């Protein structure tokens, strides 16, 4: 008996059957897809990653519970969306992030960015991105200047998992910078000196960075899973990453004095938060455009903004900023990029008038 | 079916629900004649018919009891012989306060098939009036009066006739059986339609590939003929929608707010073709129709030929109903209408009676839209169902009309796929009604 409350409930209506496809299935599928990146984070950054993920999850679930009850929506923690937000927010933090950054950042993400605007489906910006920007501005020292090396190098020296986890967050170790920071400051020469210029390490994630964003391999596993499960479509991640690669190749060499068309595209797409942002945050359904053409435009603009901030901006990393900016443009994109309608082609209409 | 045959399909969107064609192998059998029939005067698109009989009259099977009023309307005939016991106002599934003629069955049956009338020498005008006389309407569910369809407006040249045997709705199998059992009749009907519209050059028979036996049967039947072709269609809902079928087979699009005749196409359902044959060759009015009585847990599911006006309660007595069911649907589960009470009679548009179990019944949850864009991906028209529903929900119907509100064919693919179970079709339909009301008030 299909009876709806409100306007649609004016009468009985079709259809009378429904596909086995629900919000929960979508959300928990994304959670499953995020697991490999989490495992990679623990593998490379040790117990710190576990600590960050756990604190973030507890904070997120509690905030969601409180906000859901305050907003009279009941208990909404089981739809999985807050788990995604908490995981993504945790993945966007450096291994040495103190507890207050995690707690207040995630509270801001869930309570302000998501619930203050109406809860699931109404957030104007990806909550995890909102949280990340908030902590980047509020505790910028913690978020940008203190990168730890991975625990792998310490474990090779004979330390066990716990000792290595302790070692990488000790103050004397937190001087090493992320690959993009070094590139920004010292150019490629600096990268060679620090031993960060290694495509394989960049691909598997054995480089300093945020806990969930360094391992391109783990992110790609989750991405392929989501594609197979038909939860996401290919266009935003592929076009976003493709645009960054293309533009980095064109302009990448300019700031290092090697001229046009000499940029290292592969280095740019393997480093920083680009893969995590493209595969899990830029294409978050709530804050990305609806139509295919809109998504193509959105992804092109994301790639353009990210490259510009990375190469010529004040920050070494531009993924979070560009996603936040483009999220705000989404309602406008939806207005101007619509699918073409059946029976509206000019030729069709013209022929109809003539006959 | 030949593996090399080209498979046609419409260009965009669509879904693939469970087919559940439980009764595909059941031949069409005649249902019992009920002791009492209730015949509503509104069984077609357009103005309701005017009652011609009064209480106490004796009527004969096939006698006209309702006269078409206005341009788009159709005659109604008595489906049994007997006595008119009442003329009452009641609601049908689609209209409120309609005249019903109640006939108590008695008297003799008429053997329609016994006599054949020659039609080869009749003019197209005479053939159309035979169809009109018989009150034939589109039996696919839209119930557009067929004689209107067969007389396209001047200046429109119909070159292509498409027979709709797609039957993309889950559960329904009556058109499938028609294709198998009434092939000679349908072939004759094709000749009749070509006599009416001599400009027709090409005839296609669209059949979804889940009905392989029907495709094989027709391929064999049409061997060596080039003017009539079988077009195998991909099993994808709404393949049987008129606009989608035309796009699948001819590649052309019907212009918005236009008719298939604008691009020289005529689409007829295969059951309608059979009705055209009966009207012209046997002078038999549309007094019964085939329907699929089905559902999980039904005692005797099958394809039955039922007299128009048979109360559904009578069918339930004969063929049983599941102990527990969530909804009783007239038509298919994707576009059909829920039957609120068992006294509602079978009408010309009832292509099936489907009982849905509680597990498969659609329950609205109406949770917030997560903008997953699945509804855009499955819309065969290319609308943004979520936007339309939001606009309708906020009474912004002019803006909705500007982005194609009235192009929606209400196929239900969007609401079927929506993970938040938002009643998109219900909201869009509400928006349409609200817009029409608003326009009507503006005129006053």
Topology overview:
The complex is a heterodimer of chains A (355) and B (444).
Chain A: H1 23-45, H2 47-70, H3 81-91, H4 99-114, H5 127-138, H6 140-144, H7 151-156, H8 161-168, H9 179-194, H10 199-204, H11 216-228, H12 235-251, H13 265-270, H14 274-281, H15 292-312, H16 319-336, H17 346-354
Chain B: E1 28-30, E2 36-40, E3 50-51, E4 58-59, E5 64-67, E6 76-77, E7 82-90, E8 98-105, H1 124-133, H2 146-150, E9 160-165, H3 174-181, H4 183-196, E10 202-208, H5 212-221, E11 228-233, H6 242-250, E12 265-269, H7 270-281, E13 288-295, E14 302-307, H8 312-319, E15 327-330, E16 337-338, E17 352-356, H9 374-378, H10 385-393, H11 397-402, H12 413-417, H13 424-443
Parallel strand pairs in B: 1-14, 9-10, 9-12, 10-11, 13-17
Antiparallel strand pairs in B: 2-8, 3-5, 4-7, 5-6, 7-8, 13-14, 15-16, 15-17
Main location (chain B): membrane
Pfam family, one (chain B): RnfC_N
Subcellular location (chain B): Cell membrane
Task: Considering the chains and any ligands shown, give keywords for the structure.
heterodimer, A: 355 residues, mainly alpha, B: 444 residues, alpha/beta, 6-stranded mixed β-sheet, 4-stranded antiparallel β-sheet, 13 helices, 17 strands, globular
Overview of this structure, please?
The complex is a heterodimer of chains A (about 350) and B (about 450). Chain A is mainly alpha-helical. Chain A contains 17 helices and no strands. Chain A is globular. In chain B, strands 1-14-13-17-15-16 form a six-stranded mixed β-sheet. Chain B has a four-stranded antiparallel β-sheet with strand order 2-8-7-4, with no helix packed on it. In chain B, strands 11-10-9-12 form a four-stranded parallel β-sheet, with helices on both faces. Chain B is of the alpha/beta class. Chain B is globular. In chain B, α4 packs across α7 (about 270-280). In chain B, β13 and β14 form a beta hairpin. Chains A and B meet through α1 and α17 of A and β16, α10, α12 and α13 of B. Chain B: This is Ion-translocating oxidoreductase complex subunit C. Chain B: The complex is composed of six subunits: RnfA, RnfB, RnfC, RnfD, RnfE and RnfG. Chain B: Part of a membrane-bound complex that couples electron transfer with translocation of ions across the membrane. Chain B: Its EC number is 7.-.-.-.
């Amino acid at each position: 008996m299909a009876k709806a409350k409100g306007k649609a409930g004016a009468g009985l209506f079709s259809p009378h059957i429904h596909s086995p496809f629900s919000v929960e299935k979508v959300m928990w599928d994304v959670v499953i897809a995020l697991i490999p990146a989490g495992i990679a984070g623990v593998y490379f950054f040790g117990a710190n990653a576990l600590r960050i993920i756990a604190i973030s999850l507890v904070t997120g679930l509690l905030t969601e519970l409180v906000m859901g009850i305050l907003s009279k929506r009941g208990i909404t923690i089981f739809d999985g969306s807050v788990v995604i937000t908490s995981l993504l927010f945790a993945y966007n933090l450096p291994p040495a992030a103190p507890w207050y950054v995690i707690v207040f950042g995630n509270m801001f993400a869930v309570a302000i960015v998501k619930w203050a605007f109406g809860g699931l489906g109404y957030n104007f910006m990806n909550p995890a991105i909102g949280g990340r920007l908030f902590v980047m501005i509020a505790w910028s020292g913690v978020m940008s200047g203190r990168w730890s090396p991975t625990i792998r190098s310490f474990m090779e020296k004979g330390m066990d998992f716990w000792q290595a986890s302790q070692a990488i967050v000790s103050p004397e170790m937190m001087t090493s910078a992320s690959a993009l920071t070094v590139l920004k400051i010292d150019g490629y020469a600096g990268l060679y000196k620090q031993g960060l210029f290694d495509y394989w390490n960049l691909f598997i994630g054995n480089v300093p960075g945020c806990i969930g964003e360094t391992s391109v391999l783990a992110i790609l596993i989750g991405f392929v899973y989501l594609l197979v499960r038909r939860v996401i479509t290919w266009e935003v991640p592929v076009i976003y990453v493709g645009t960054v690669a293309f533009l980095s190749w064109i302009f990448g060499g300019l700031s290092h004095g090697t001229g046009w068309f000499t940029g290292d595209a592969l280095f740019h797409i393997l480093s920083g938060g680009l893969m995590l942002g493209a595969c899990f945050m830029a294409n978050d359904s709530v804050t990305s455009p609806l139509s295919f053409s809109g998504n193509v435009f959105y992804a092109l603009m994301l790639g353009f903004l990210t490259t510009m901030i990375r190469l010529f901006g004040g920050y070494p990393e531009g993924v979070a900023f560009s996603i936040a900016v483009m999220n705000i443009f989404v309602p406008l994109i939806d207005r101007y990029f619509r699918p073409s309608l059946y029976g509206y082609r000019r030729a069709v209409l013209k022929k109809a008038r003539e006959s | 079916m030949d593996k090399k045959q080209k498979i046609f399909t419409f260009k965009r969107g669509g879904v693939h629900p469970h087919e559940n064609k439980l009764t595909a192998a059941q031949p069409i059998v005649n249902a019992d004649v009920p002791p009492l029939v209730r015949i509503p005067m509104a069984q077609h698109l357009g103005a309701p018919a005017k009652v011609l009989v009064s209480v106490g009259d004796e009527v004969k099977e096939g006698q006209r009891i309702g006269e078409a009023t206005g341009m788009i309307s159709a005659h109604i005939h008595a489906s049994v012989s007997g006595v008119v016991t009442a003329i009452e106002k009641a609601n049908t599934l689609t209209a409120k306060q309609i005249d019903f003629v109640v006939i108590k069955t008695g008297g003799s049956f008429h053997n329609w098939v016994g006599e054949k009338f020659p039609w080869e020498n009749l003019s197209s005008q005479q053939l159309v009036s035979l169809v009109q006389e018989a009150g034939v309407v589109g039996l696919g569910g839209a119930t557009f009066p067929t004689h209107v369809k067969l007389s396209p407006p001047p200046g429109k040249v119909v070159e292509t006739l498409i027979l709709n045997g797609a039957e993309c709705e889950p559960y329904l199998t009556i058109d499938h059986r028609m294709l198998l059992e009434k092939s000679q009749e349908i072939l004759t009907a094709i000749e009749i339609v070509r006599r009416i519209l001599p400009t027709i050059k090409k005839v296609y028979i669209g059949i979804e590939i889940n009905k392989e036996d029907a495709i094989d049967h027709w391929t064999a039947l049409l061997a060596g003929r080039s003017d009539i072709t079988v077009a195998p269609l991909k099993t994808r809902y709404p393949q049987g929608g008129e606009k989608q079928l035309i796009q699948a087979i001819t590649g052309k699009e019907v212009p918005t707010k236009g008719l298939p005749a604008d691009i020289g196409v005529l689409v007829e359902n295969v059951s309608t073709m059979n009705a055209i044959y009966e009207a012209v060759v046997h002078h038999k009015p549309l007094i019964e129709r085939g329907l699929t009585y089905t559902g999980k847990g039904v005692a005797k599911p099958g394809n039955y030929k039922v007299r128009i006006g048979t109360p559904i309660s009578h069918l339930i007595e004969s063929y049983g109903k599941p102990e527990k069911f969530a909804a009783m649907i007239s038509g298919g589960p994707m576009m059909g209408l829920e039957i609120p009470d068992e006294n509602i009679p079978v009408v010309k548009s009832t292509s099936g009676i489907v009982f849905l179990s509680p597990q498969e019944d659609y329950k609205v949850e109406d949770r917030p839209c997560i903008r997953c864009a699945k509804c855009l991906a499955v819309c065969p028209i290319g609308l943004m169902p979520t936007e339309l529903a939001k606009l309708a929900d906020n009474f912004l119907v002019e803006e909705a009309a500007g982005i194609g509100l009235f192009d929606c064919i209400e196929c239900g693919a969007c609401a079927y796929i929506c993970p938040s179970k938002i009643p998109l079709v219900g909201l869009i339909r509400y928006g349409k009604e609200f817009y029409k009301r608003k326009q009507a008030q503006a005129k006053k």
